[in-house]
Amino acid sequence: MERLSSAYAYLWETCGPWGIALLACMIILFFVQFWYWVGYYGRIPSYRNARAGDARPPVSVALVVHEPDYDFLENGLPVLLGQEYDDFEIIVTDLSGDVEFGEALAVIAEHNPRFNVTRMVRDARFPISDKMAFNVAIKAARYDNILLTTVDSRPASLQWIARMARGFDGAGIVIGYCGMEGASAFSSRLIRLDNAARAIRWLSAAMHGKPYRGTLQNIGFTKALYFGNGGFNYLNMNIGEDDLFIQKLLETGTAAAVIVSSNSTVRQKIWGGTGWWYADRCMRSNAFRHYPAKVKTFVAAELWSRALFFAAAAAAVVLFPPELKLFAAGLLLIRFGLIFFEMRRITRRLSEKGLMRAVPLYDLCSPLYEAWMAADRKFRRSPGLWR
Fold this sequence. Notes:
By secondary structure, the chain is of the alpha/beta class. The protein is 53% helix and 11% strand. Helix 4 (70-81) links the parallel strand 1 (59-65) and strand 2 (88-94). It is elongated.
């Protein structure tokens, strides 16, 4: 007690009441960050997927083609049709309106019983959304277990369906991970890291039994569950298939399974630089305002505690006496080391490579980035958001 009293007297004399308050805030914020990264996000590397059982349920994979995409025909579709699984089908809703491309799809369907094509005719007066196109594909599905993906993403393994199908044993929703395809440019690394960092939040929440979203490129549910809840008709927006609709399904008490491995991952194509990524993120993040309050608090608390910790540590380094400057700097370095250690473990589990060099910059700037995006969403409407 005498030592504590002496330490308090020293702090009061050298820092004053505001300095003590700043020091206390910095320590509390450090432990908040510790809880997020070790106690919550740290679940990802050690998480156990559903084990392979005797049941291998038939699966329908649904996706939508918007434009003539011959790269998909030559490289993406063969990976889907070549999946090492007994009972599955690939259903494509063709919105391209291109005769030649449509004929190419028809030829493939004619020679492969596992491939089916549905077509929708575009009308400028009545735009067709992804939700409508997926509705058509899911209606045409022969099997009750549905996996969704997109033409700009492809499975990283021929075991993708087999791994994801395990989740249907005891769960109505199956959540997988989608990474961005690798690139050496630093902007591409930031895009991949931002994608992984957001996935860490919802994957860890699902692993703790509190799922709130997935990713359209790699998610599944049963056909009965889909139509029993009205299908993709939530709000009049062109987004929400992998978060708002999933939240609606979860309200019914439906169980969700998480499958994360190198074989269950899909990779999405990077279509541009940071400008393209920001515009896409800004539009899709409009769904966040409709999330449950506890989810918004969970996400915001990590970002705010991180930003305030950086601010408190910087103020302490500037204002405190030398020995306390060292303490603040040491606490800051410990946190960076902790984040680096956990991110290395998590990215290995997610099969993400080459991201660690960008982690310090992203860790420091992402709270400001998210705040800017939130302000942008509030004052500027994203094109293509509403039907």
